[in-house]
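Give me C-alpha cells for this 364-residue protein.
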Amino acid sequence: MSFQIRGLGTALPVGFVSADEGLRVARVIGGPTARKSGFLSAVYEGCGNKRRALVHGRNVIQDLLEGTRHSGSPYLPDGDQDFPGPPTGTRNAMYAEHAPPLAVESAKEALQSAGIPASAVTHIVTVSCTGFVAPGIDIALIQSLGLRPTVLRTHVGFMGCHGALNGLRVANAFAIADPSAVILLVAVELCSLHFHFGDQPENVVANALFADGAAAVVGTAGDGPWRILSTGSCLIPNTADAMTWTIGDRGFEMTLAKQVPKRIAESLGAWMNEWLGQNGLTVAEVGCWAVHPGGPKIIDAVETALALPPGATAVSRQIFADYGNMSSPTVLFILNEMMKSNRPRPCVMLGFGPGLVAEAALCV
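Here you go.
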C-alpha cells in the first residue's frame, strides 16, 4: 500500500487583482522607465492569467491604482522614484500573520472532504518557500484544528514551485512505513509579499505570474484510486543559474532565465520516458497530466518535450488563468479539479524548481 488521497481542500486570500489592474499596478511599482515602456503591456498580455488572489487587500490595490495612501501599506511607493519596497523583515512579518490562517482554511476543507476527523491525524507535512516563522504553520494547524499534541511534524521548506511534490514523497514514505498513518499535507505560499519594485525584466515577469494561495491533502495508506505509485526527480544539467530563489534585503529574489522553457523542452522527454518505463508505462498511456503552470511558456515546453495531444494541459492552463502561479499549492489545485471531474488515470503530476529540477509524482 501507498499514500492514497482521501480529500483535498484549497483556500485563497480575499484580495485579488484582475489582469488589467495588474498591468496598472505594474506601471506604478515599475518606476518612471517602466511606465513609458511597451514591455509591461507585452508581458501582461502574453502571460495568460485573468485574475490572481493576493494577500494584499483590495484597499491596497485601490491605493496603488488611485495614488492614495488610505491603507497605510508598506508596499505603497513613498515618492522616491527608486523606492525598493519594504524590507524583508516587514514582508516576513506579513507572512507570519497571513500564511497560517490560509493553511488552516485549506486543511479544514481537506479533512471535511475526506470525512476524517482532525483528531485522527498522525502526521502533518507542511510546505512553503515564501516565508519563515517559528513556531510555524505546523503549530498553527495543531492549535486551530485541534490535532493531537503528539502529531508528527515535518516541514518541506524553500524548494519552490515543486515543493508539494516533495511533500507528497514524504507523505508516501510515511504511509508505506506505517499503514495506520493518517497524513495531512498543507502547502501555502504568499508570493505577492516578494513583488519587486523597478523595471528589471525578470522581476517584471515574476510580478505578472505569481499569486497567493494554499492547498491541503489528507490521505492514508491504501490501494484504492488516486494513490501515489511512484515519485521521481531529475536535475537538469548546466542550469544552476537558470532558476534561483534567494533571500535579499528587500524580499526573496527570483532569477528566471529566458532559457528555462528551452532547457525543459530539450531535457524533459528523455527522463520522463525513462521514469515512466521504470513504472511500466509510456507517455501515451498516461491518462491525465497535472503540470505546474510556471507560466504559459513552461506548459508549452512540456507539451513539446512529451509530444502531448491537444488539450492534455487544459486544466493546468485554466488554473493558471483563474489563479496565477501560486508556487507549491498550484499543482494541488490542478489535481483537485482532475479528481472532481474523475479524469482518467494514471495521472502524472509535474513541477519545476530551482536547480533546475523537475519533480514528478505518479497517481494510479
